[in-house]
Amino acid sequence: MILQRLRSEMKKENIDCYIIPTSDPHGSEYLHNHFKEREFITNFTGSAGTAVVTENQAFLWTDGRYFIQAESEIKESGFKLMKMGIEGTPTYIEWLSENLKSNDLVGLNGEYFMVKSYEKLKHTLEEKSIFIKDIDLIDNIWENRPELPNGKVYIHDFKFNGKSSLEKISLIRNKLNYYNANITVISSLDDIAWTLNIRGSDIKYCPFVYSYLIIEEESVVLFINKEKLEQKTYEYLNKICYIYEYDEIFNYLGKYNNKKFYIDKNKVSVKLFGSINNSNNFVYGNNITEDLKSIKNAVELENQKNAYIKDGVALTKFIYWLKNTVKLKKINEYDAALKLQEFRKQQKYYIEDSFETISAYGKNGAMMHYSANNENSLIIEERGFLLVDSGGQYLDGTTDITRTIVMGSLTEEEIEDFTYTLKSHFMLSTCKFLKGTSGRDLDILARYNLWKNNLDYKSGTGHGVGYFLNVHESPPSISPRSTEKSLEPGMIVTNEPGVYKEGKYGIRIENVYEIVEDTTVGNDVFYKFNVLSFAPIDIEAIDMKLLDNYEIAALNDYHKKVYEKISPSLNSDERKWLYNVTRELIR
Amino acid sequence: MILQRLRSEMKKENIDCYIIPTSDPHGSEYLHNHFKEREFITNFTGSAGTAVVTENQAFLWTDGRYFIQAESEIKESGFKLMKMGIEGTPTYIEWLSENLKSNDLVGLNGEYFMVKSYEKLKHTLEEKSIFIKDIDLIDNIWENRPELPNGKVYIHDFKFNGKSSLEKISLIRNKLNYYNANITVISSLDDIAWTLNIRGSDIKYCPFVYSYLIIEEESVVLFINKEKLEQKTYEYLNKICYIYEYDEIFNYLGKYNNKKFYIDKNKVSVKLFGSINNSNNFVYGNNITEDLKSIKNAVELENQKNAYIKDGVALTKFIYWLKNTVKLKKINEYDAALKLQEFRKQQKYYIEDSFETISAYGKNGAMMHYSANNENSLIIEERGFLLVDSGGQYLDGTTDITRTIVMGSLTEEEIEDFTYTLKSHFMLSTCKFLKGTSGRDLDILARYNLWKNNLDYKSGTGHGVGYFLNVHESPPSISPRSTEKSLEPGMIVTNEPGVYKEGKYGIRIENVYEIVEDTTVGNDVFYKFNVLSFAPIDIEAIDMKLLDNYEIAALNDYHKKVYEKISPSLNSDERKWLYNVTRELIR
C-alpha cells in the first residue's frame, strides 16, 4: 500500500507528519498529472484537498462539493475523510496544532507550498514548538510518475492581443520603479503567458507552459524546458529575454545580492522564495501583471466580442439539437457534453474547452460542480432542466456561459425558481454603479430577489475571466467574500446567480459582461455592464407574472441582440427556431 | 489676539507646533462648552475640525459641510482654512509630516486625544524624528472658560430599560472573563449611562453625565462630581459601585499592578491610558458595552415603539400645522423648528431634542447639516420642499426622523427626485437578508434606484440609534464605509437616502427600523426590517408612474399603519387630514 511506503520514508527521515497539498510549483488552479501528488497518495481525484499522514493516522481534507466522491474514492487508501466547513471539523492546521506533540517534525515539499499559506502554517505550529522540514518524500515512492508535459510553445499573435511583450514589460518596470524594487519573480503561468504573449498546452483547459520569469531593470530571464521551443518561437523569445532551463531558476535566484524583490506570496513557492539570499530586501503584493492583464485593451475587447458570438453560436446550435434530439432518442448528460464540444470545435480559433463541461440533468444540477462521465451519466428525460455550464478557449478569448434548458414539463416550483434566478441576473446586469464600487458591494444585487423568496446560493455571484488565459481570473470578483478592489472599465466578469435544491434540481443563468463607462455627472462617474455572451434564455421556464416591467424589457432587449448576433451563423431551421424562442414577450 | 497668546505659551515651553482637536476626555460626539477649545482658539463653531498652530502658521482643517461657515467664522482669528477631502489638500497629519523639521516638538493635550488617533499621529511623526509632548497650553490663556456643567444625575427607571445595572455588570464581567482580562475602563459617557442606568444633563441633546467607570472582577468604581448626586441617586449608585471624584481616576488607575486591562483605544484618552503603569497587560477592542447595548432588550423594544408613536404624533401635528399656516402668515425655517419642538414637548416622557433640528427650505435643503437660526432663516414660500430632520430624547427612547414636506407647487425634477428617493427607501426597507449580512452589504440597495438615474448622496444610508442615549450609536451602520459587523435582531437603524442638488433643493426620507427575524429555511436564517417611525410621507410629491407595484404596496401598507398608530392622538381636523394624506393610492 502506498501509504505504508510513505510512512517508511517518513520513519527513515524522522518525519512525524507529512502534508501533501493540491498544488504545482506555480499555484495553478488546474494541475498536470505530474503534480497530482495528493491524488496519487489518496486516490481522490477532486480538484481541491489536503492530505495529512502521521505514523498512525491519515486524513484527507476536502470541501462540500466532494464529500460523496471523496468518501468513495479513498475507501482503499487508508485515509479518513475530514469534511471541511462542517461544524466541529477542524481545519488541517488546527488539527496539526491540536494533535501533534511539541518537538514533532512536520515534513512538506516546499516546491508545492506557496509562501503565504506556508507562513500561516509555520506561525501556528511554532506556537506549539512543532517544526517544519522541507523535504520531498513522494517522488521516491511514485513509480511510473507521469513525466512533465512537453507540448510546444507558440506565439500568441499581436493581432489577437494588441500589445507587444516589450510594451508589457515596460509597464511592469514602471510599476517596479513605483515600488522602488529592482526585480520581480513571476511564477504564475497565466501571468507569464500574458507577459510574453506566448501560449502552450502543458495543462488541460489552460493554454500555459510550465516556466518562471524574472524581470529586472535591465534584463528579462525566462526559465523553460527549451525542447518546447521551436526555432521560430525561440527566436521570438530570444529577442525579449535570456532563456534558461526550467530548473535553473533556483540557482539563478541565489546569485542576487542586495537587491529589492517584488514578490507575490500567494504565487511564489517556499522553495523559490527560499532560494533568494538574505542580503536582499522585499516588497510584497499581488503580481504586478494581475491588474495590468485584468483590464483588457481595445484589441482584446474587440476580438473577444467575436469569440463570444462564436461561442454563442455553438451553444445555440447545441440547444436546438438537444431539444429536438431528446424527443427522438436516448441521450445522457455525457453525450450532451460531447455534442456541445463538437459544436465548439467547429468555431474559428477554437483550441479547447476552458473547463470541464457541467452537463447536469435534474437532481444532478443541484451539485454545483457536477461532472458527468460515460458511466455515471443520467439519461435526459422529457421533463425538468438540463443545466449546462461550459466554455471555450479561443485564440481570441476565453468564454464561460451557463444555460438551464427546459427538457419538457416543469413543476410550478421549477418555473418560479427559474424566474427568480432570471430576476437576480437582470438586477445585477442592468444596474449602474459609481466608480470605486467593488464586486463585493454589488453581490447583494444578485441575491436581493432570491432572499425575498427565502432562497440563496452558496457561491460567489461572479468571477473575472481571462483573455485566452484562465477562465477564473483575479482580481475581479463579485462575491460577499471578495476584496474591496473596485471594478474598472475593461474588466470582464461573470454574473451567475442560481437556485440549487438538493435531490431536485439546479438552476443557473450565467453571462459574461465587460465593464464600461456610462455617464459622468459632476464628480460622479457611473459604470455599467455590457453583455458579451449571446444565447437564448429558455422562455418556457418563465412566469411572466413574477417579472417587473424593467425585467421584461431587459429580457426582450437581450433576446433581440441574441437573434441579431447569432442568427447569421445558423441554418434556416435553427434560425426559425431561434426567432421564435427570442421573440418579444408581452405581459 | 488669542493666537498670539498661544504662540507665546508655545515659545515658553519650546513647542514648535500645537494641535487642538475637537474632543472631550470621553471621545463624545457632542461637547459641553467647557471642552470647545478648538472653537475658542479659531472662532469656528462647527462640530468637527482640527486646529494646528506653528510659530508662523495657523490652520483649521474641516470638512465639506462647513467650508462656507468656517471661512467666514475664522476671518479674524489668524487661521487659514484647510478643506478636507478636496484633492490636493493634505490631512493635518500629512501636513505636519511634510512641513515640520526633524527634532521639532509637537504639543497636544493628551486628555483630548483618544489613544487610536494619537498612535497614528505618533507613528507618522516619529518616522521623521518629530516628537510629541503632552501639554495643556489652552487652559492658561482661556479667560472666562465655561465651568464644567453641574446638572443633577437621575436614575433611569427599570420599567424603561428592563435590565438592572447589576445584571449588565455581570454580562460585562462574563465578557472580561472571555478575554482573560481583569479590568475594563469605560470612558464613553453613553456606555456609562447604559451600564449604571443613570442619566444626566451635562451635554445638550445627550442625557449623559461626565464620569469614568472601572469594572473589575470584584468591584465597580465610578468617578463623578459627587455634587451631582442627590441623596437618592447616591444611595442607588452606592449599592452598585464605589464612588470617587471625577478627577481621581488618574491616580486610581496608577495603583494597579500586574493586571490585564480590556481597553477601547477609540474611547480612552492618552492621559487616561498613560496613567496605567507598565506592569499591566492589555487586550484591545471596542467597548464591551457597545455590542450589549446595541441589541435592545424586549422591554426597551416595547417602550421604544410607544416613544416612536408619540414622536410621530408630534411630527404629524406639525406637518398639519405647517401646511395650513404657511398659507396664512409668514413663517421661516427657525419658526418651524421651534413649533415642532413645541409639539414634541407635549409628549409624555419628552426630555429634550436628540439633536439640533434641521429645518431647511428650498436650496438650504441641499446642505446636509444645515441649521437655521433666527437671523439667517429663509421664509418658507408656497412652493418647493421644507426638509425637516429632527428627533427627541424620551425616557422611553431616542427618535430620529426626516420628512421632506411639499409647501406648494413642485417642478417635475423635484417630483422625480422625491420619487427616486422613496424607491430607494423602500428597496432597503422591504428587503430580507441572510444572517451575517452587514450594513455595509445592504447600503447599495438604497442607492440602486438613484444610481440608475445618475444620482447619489455623499453620506451613509443609516446609523444605529440609542435607547434614550446617543442618536448616533455604534456599531450598527449602513454605509459603504461601515465595518463588516453583521446586523442582528434587536438592533435599531435609520434608513435615510436622499437627493441633494446644490442651489436647488434637498430631499431625504428617513425612518427608523428594528431588525427582526423573518424565516429560517434549512441553515438559512433570514432577517428583515420592522418600521418604528410613523408619519405621513408626502404623496403630493410622488410620480406614480415611476413606482413599481411592490413599492405602491409598500407605501399603502406603511400609510395604513401610520393612520392606525397616529390618528387616535389627533384632533378631528388633524385626523380628517391624515386620513386623506394616507389614503390608499392606486395606479
Automatic annotation (TrEMBL), chains A, B:
<dbReference type="InterPro" id="IPR033740">
    <property type="entry name" value="Pept_M24B"/>
</dbReference>
<keyword id="KW-0479">Metal-binding</keyword>
<dbReference type="InterPro" id="IPR000587">
    <property type="entry name" value="Creatinase_N"/>
</dbReference>
<dbReference type="GO" id="GO:0046872">
    <property type="term" value="F:metal ion binding"/>
</dbReference>
<comment type="similarity">
    <text>Belongs to the peptidase M24B family.</text>
</comment>
<dbReference type="InterPro" id="IPR050422">
    <property type="entry name" value="X-Pro_aminopeptidase_P"/>
</dbReference>
<dbReference type="InterPro" id="IPR032416">
    <property type="entry name" value="Peptidase_M24_C"/>
</dbReference>
<dbReference type="InterPro" id="IPR036005">
    <property type="entry name" value="Creatinase/aminopeptidase-like"/>
</dbReference>
<dbReference type="Pfam" id="PF16189">
    <property type="entry name" value="Creatinase_N_2"/>
</dbReference>
<keyword id="KW-0031">Aminopeptidase</keyword>
<dbReference type="Pfam" id="PF00557">
    <property type="entry name" value="Peptidase_M24"/>
</dbReference>
<keyword id="KW-0378">Hydrolase</keyword>
<feature type="domain" description="Peptidase M24 C-terminal">
    <location>
        <begin position="526"/>
        <end position="584"/>
    </location>
</feature>
<dbReference type="InterPro" id="IPR000994">
    <property type="entry name" value="Pept_M24"/>
</dbReference>
<dbReference type="GO" id="GO:0070006">
    <property type="term" value="F:metalloaminopeptidase activity"/>
</dbReference>
<feature type="domain" description="Peptidase M24">
    <location>
        <begin position="305"/>
        <end position="515"/>
    </location>
</feature>
<dbReference type="InterPro" id="IPR029149">
    <property type="entry name" value="Creatin/AminoP/Spt16_N"/>
</dbReference>
<dbReference type="Pfam" id="PF16188">
    <property type="entry name" value="Peptidase_M24_C"/>
</dbReference>
<keyword id="KW-0645">Protease</keyword>
<feature type="domain" description="Creatinase N-terminal">
    <location>
        <begin position="3"/>
        <end position="128"/>
    </location>
</feature>
<dbReference type="Pfam" id="PF01321">
    <property type="entry name" value="Creatinase_N"/>
</dbReference>
<dbReference type="GO" id="GO:0005737">
    <property type="term" value="C:cytoplasm"/>
</dbReference>
<protein>
    <submittedName>
        <fullName>Aminopeptidase P family protein</fullName>
    </submittedName>
</protein>
